[in-house]
Write a structure and sequence with these properties.
Elements lengths: L12 E4 L9 H8 L5 E7 L11 H7 L6 E7 L7 H7 L3 E5 L5 H10 L3 E6 L17 E5 L15 H14 L4 E5 L6 H8 L3 E4 L1 H4 L4 H15 L2
Parallel strand pairs: 1-8, 2-3, 3-4, 4-5, 5-6, 6-7, 7-8
Helix pairs in contact: 2-3, 6-8
The structure holds D-xylitol-5-phosphate (DX5) and zinc ion.
């Protein structure tokens, strides 16, 4: 399966996290928000790297026919090497692995060899220095604004210092790198994140727990654009 285009690097993009949607009606959830969103963010949890279990390749496969959006798969799992190929085959466009699981250079190479767009994620308390050696080899840096594992947590503003550092580094080096934030993003925190330098915004509960997910996505996009420097 061909990998879908992620769109222009650095553009503001809204990535709804289906973790917050009704798992019994995922196809209609992604279709509903499609006009106001850019990617589909798929949160994969293994009950080991994080204390929660969510979904895996079969769900990506089942959802694939219902969306032409870039599938941004966030692997919160201890052994991504074992599953990258299954995600690719299921229809993932990009896979993001956590730097905390280790083996990072090899995971990046594996994902690249499969034709995936490659992301690297860091938890809120992981220093920027831990990801800097890999910035030239990835397409997306995900700086978590909550500790991964659950939707509906509060945005951690203290991570914005790290987002600012990352933005400075990306701009100074001219790297073609998207800077994504994930956790507690809503219409209030979205402009805080874009002002600090993030350009891809994941939002779960602020979209899918809202009475009108489409309106919520539009409001987050407008707020994010307003925060852009
Ligand atoms: C957290 C996940 C997030 C989460 C975001 O472990 O990686 O993508 O679903 O959900 P909200 O937007 O509700 O914080
Ligand atoms: Zn996520």
């Amino acid at each position: 399966m061909d990998t879908l285009d992620a769109g222009p690097v650095g553009a503001v993009r809204i990535a709804p996290s289906i973790l917050a949607a009704d798992f019994g009606a995922l196809a209609s959830a992604v279709r509903l928000v499609d006009p106001q969103t850019d990617w589909v963010h798929v949160d994969v949890m293994d009950g080991h790297f994080v204390p929660n279990i969510s979904i895996g390749p079969p769900v990506v496969h089942s959802l694939r026919p219902y969306s032409q959006r870039f599938f941004d798969c966030h692997l919160m799992i201890s052994d991504p090497a074992r599953y990258l190929e299954a995600f690719k085959k299921a229809g993932a466009d990009g896979c993001t692995v956590h730097v905390e699981v280790g083996n990072t250079a090899s995971l990046i190479a594996d994902a690249r060899a499969l034709g995936l767009r490659v992301g690297l994620a860091a938890n809120p308390d992981t220093p920027f220095d831990d990801v800097t050696p890999f910035l030239g080899d990835i397409d997306l840096l995900l700086l978590m604004t909550v500790f991964p594992g659950f939707g509906g947590q509060s945005f951690m503003p203290e991570v914005m210092d790290k987002v600012g550092l990352a933005r400075k580094e990306i701009d100074a080096t001219g790297l073609a790198l998207d800077l994504e934030v994930d956790g507690g993003i809503d219409r209030v925190t979205a402009p805080v994140a874009t002002r600090a330098g993030a350009n891809v915004l994941v939002a779960g509960s602020a979209i899918f727990a809202h009475a009108s997910p489409l309106d919520a996505a539009e409001a987050i996009r407008e707020a994010a654009l307003a925060g852009r420097r």
